[in-house]
Amino acid sequence: MFDKVVGLRPEEAACWSAMVEQCQPVLANQGMEAVQTLLAAHGMSVIQAIAITRALLGWEVTTLRTAIDIVTASAARTALVALADDRSDADEITAASITDGPVGRTSGGTV
Q: Which sign, positive or negative, has the C-alpha torsion 45, 50, 51, 56?
């Protein structure tokens, strides 16, 4: 199923194929957004989700651009991006609060 993906290890191809099989009834019964939520819940990266989505919809009839748009527009992915942004902001706040002064400066000397 993923023979066209250059450099993909056999065990990865098997995992992705299993995800396609798991996603088929979800797509049929609940739609593509539910598929994207399932892929995100299983920790599939954006790249993995694009390949799995394209395989699920059919390599020959689904362009790469279509698969990219489906994955990146999904609420599951936008929620993950928002969560990552929130964590990044929290990390910056924490880093600033534990230093003695502005981040990147040392106390008592010049930088």
A: positive
- Rounded CA-CA distance 58/88 in Å is 37
Cβ atoms of residues 77 and 46 within 8 Å: yes
Q: Which of 35-39, 89-93, 98-102, 107-111 has the highest mean pLDDT?
A: 35-39
CB neighbours of 64 closer than 8 A, spacing ≥ 6?
Answer: 50, 54
d(CA 5, CA 82) in angstroms, rounded, equals 30
Locate the domains of the chain by residue range: 10-97
Whole-angstrom Cα distance, residue 28 to residue 10?
A: 27
| Tokens at 93, concatenated | 């706040």
Encoded amino acid at 71, one letter: V
SS3 state at 5? coil
Q: What is the pLDDT of residues 39-64, one digit of tens each?
A: 999 999 999 999 999 999 999 999 99
State both tokens at 9: 């290890």
In angstroms, rounded to a whole number, what is the distance separating the alpha carbons of residues 111 and 108? 10
